[in-house]
Amino acid sequence: MVKRLLHCKNISKKYGSITAISKLSLSINNGEILSILGPSGCGKTTLLRLIAGLDSPDEGYITLNDRILVNGATWVPPHQREVGMVFQEFALFPHMTVQENIEFGLSKLNAKHKAFRVKTVLDLTRINDLKQRFPSELSGGQQQRVALARTLSTQPELLLMDEPFSNLDAGLRSLVREEVKTILRDSDTATIFVTHDREEAFSISDKVAIMLDGTIHQVDPPDKIYFWPNTKDVATLSGGCDFISGKIENDFALTSIGKIPIRVIGEFRNGTEVEIAIRPNDLAMTPNPSGNSRVIRKEFRGDDTLFWVESPSGEIICCKHKIHTTLFAGLRIDLSPEKFVKFNVFPK
Amino acid sequence: MIFWRSIILAFSVTSTCVVIAVPIALLITKFDLKYKRIWEVVTLLPLVIPSYVGAYLLMSAMGPKGLFQQILHPIFGIERMPSLYGFAGALITLSLLNFPYVLLTIRGTINQLDPAQEESSRLLGLNRLQTLIKVTLPQLRPAILSGGLLVSLYTLSDFGAVSLMRYKTFTWSIYNQYGASFDMNAAALLSVSLCVLATLVVYFESFIRGNKKYFNTSMGTLRAPRVMKLGLWQIPSQIFCLLLTIFSLGIPTSILCYWLFRGLTSGESIINVFESAGNSLILASLTSICVIAVVLPVSYLVVRYGGILATIVEKSCFVGFALPSIAVSLSLVFLGSRIGYPIYQSMGLLVFACALLYLPTGLGSVRSSMLHISPKLEESSKTLGKSSLSTYTKITLPLLRPSILMGIAIVFLVTMKELPAVLMLSPLDFHTLTTDIWTYSSEAFFAKAAVPSLTLLLVSSIPLTLAMLKSGLRG
Lengths: 348, 475
Known about the structure:
The structure holds two protein chains of two kinds. By secondary structure, chain A is α+β, with helices and mostly antiparallel strands. Chain A has two domains: 4-234, Rossmann fold (3-Layer(aba) Sandwich), CATH 3.40.50.300; 240-347, no CATH class. Helix content of chain A is 23%, strand content 35%. Chain A has helices at residues 44-52, 98-103, 111-125, 140-153, 170-187, 198-204, 222-227, 232-237; strands spanning 4-15, 18-29, 33-37, 59-64, 67-70, 83-86, 158-162, 190-195, 207-212, 215-220, 242-249, 252-255, 258-261, 273-278, 283-287, 293-300, 305-310, 316-321, 332-337, 344-347. In chain A, the strands form four sheets. A six-stranded mixed sheet of chain A has the order 6-7-8-3-9-10, sandwiched between helices. Chain A has a five-stranded antiparallel sheet with strand order 13-12-11-14-20. The radius of gyration of chain A is 24 Å and the shape is globular. Chain B is mostly helical. Helices cover 76% and strands 0% of the residues of chain B. The two termini of chain B are 40 Å apart. The A-B interface holds A 52-54, 77-81, 83-85, 87, 89, 91, 93-95, 104-105, 108, 136, 150-151, 154, 156, 160 and B 219, 222, 374, 376-377, 379-388, 390-391, 394-395, 398-399.
């Protein structure tokens, strides 16, 4: 019983002469966690602000549960939208305690219901011990949880999160991310979540929307985004990626490093010039004194090592490998596709 | 020439105030000065002393046949003290009473500076003093300038002190033309010149300040700035603060008490100040309410929406800034007498004049703290289901409270002190504390002037002290 919750259709927004959003359409279903992944400046935050009602689009419409939030004629103000938002800076009210911050959105409830809701979100976010503190007395991770609790307490139909983990340090980030994911699952709240960090997007969400230049390029589950990118841009945004050129021949592409299997068959005619996306884990490296590729640089990363390899035609490909002692810069090697790997090709 | 006399006085008073206020502000905010809370309040209190009260106290104490001469005469046989009338008297009085304006603006800025900047400077190899001079002070320049601007405008428009000190400036001439010879044309001409002069000062200030934004207003670091140790300098600093307080606050109040005491013992009847005090309170309260009622929507409009309309509204609010009160009063007298009843000599017109004059004072305070409230806070309140109005009352207003209180306190205080507008615009038989003081002191009935003066000081220092304590160290 998947039901469509939010629907944005052909929305555009300009600030002066700058186009922030152009002809964008996007939907999200009940209970789904969707992340919007894109580089900074692509209009992600603007999109959230349009959905929350903090700004209004120049054209297009947005509906929530088939209720019109905004179109040419109607505009529902933010406080009547049932859309919650967690800001990048958390925006906790500095003059109120944690408890007062959480109660803030519940003034319409009677005391008993209010206490119950507060208790529920305090338990959910595990900040019961902090309720008498002021925001200035909290750490980043705690502020994050209070901000989330405050928004969840109003039981919004849709939750928006704007780069919610970017203000946390790296160690805390993955921990809080897991926690937030659990909290969102437990409360079954549909969430749109904006980030420029693909690991974050992949790990937290059911679906990822790739956004570039004010519009959505692809919406799919994380693995599909990674393995089946629609365009070169999506391929680049969804993971480390290098491109080499080649020619289609049946189920394969002919390239300077050899014949490699392609993923989508029949899309291009034989002989078509294409570009092939290579992920760092896609190619195996075999040392070979007469090999036609050459390692030009290596970078030790701990769990694995990154190698930059120059192909016979001079293209630079980045490869990941667990072993780092036997391979070094200057070594001649052979590159060959790893087992079962198929490659995405794009028109030139 | 009147023009140069006014300019020279304004320049000298402003420089003196800056020289006094900068070290005090630094001591209070940057160093571990002992009794900080006390100095914080006490160094602001000279603001409550009206310039003409300050002037008459100085005259009565230090004049050729003043109090000091009478004390010194039996011991040293001094017949006459050197004359303090004229430039020196006006300079001393106005500087001692107006330096807190510079103090206020500096302290408003100093706590917004990112402590990381000073720390970087130390790490780049500069010592504490170099850091203070090269990093901190340059960033305080806009604050010092705008404080100096306030002082120079108040000096230009000051009427009480210069006329009691018989230093002839624009305001003195305007009042003379109007009061003595009823020469409206000459008074109007002089007023216009004074306004032009004041506008030039405002322009000069914005010219040297430029439109640069010196300080970082990011909401990021909320770390308190590190306090530096005074060490051996603790005692000289305490002495500096103490001396300043003695001269700007201690001596004036003791002389007032002395006059009161002498009046009482010589059997002079204590004049009844209840009615005047009541009138002053009503006038000051009404003005503060009017000012805040305008300031709150205007500051919100200007900061949150901007645009041409907001800019026009804002600029027109600052008109009073450049207009000396005597010129505003005079023009309202013209206007009022043309229209006549019900406006002329009505309470409404008087409150309007005071509100117009002190609108910029209130607006400045509230607007700058409005600038520091992140719009994200209001937005998150809206996404939590609160309407715009309810967001304003629950989030914006509480966060603005310290600056609103401070704004009210200062507007209240300057209205309590206001003289020319009350003299020229008040309804018939409407006496305030200031007109009482003016009447008695210009006729040299010092003992009689003591009661209304002390009442004035007392009544105006209460809200200032309260606001200061409420707004805490953030100034």
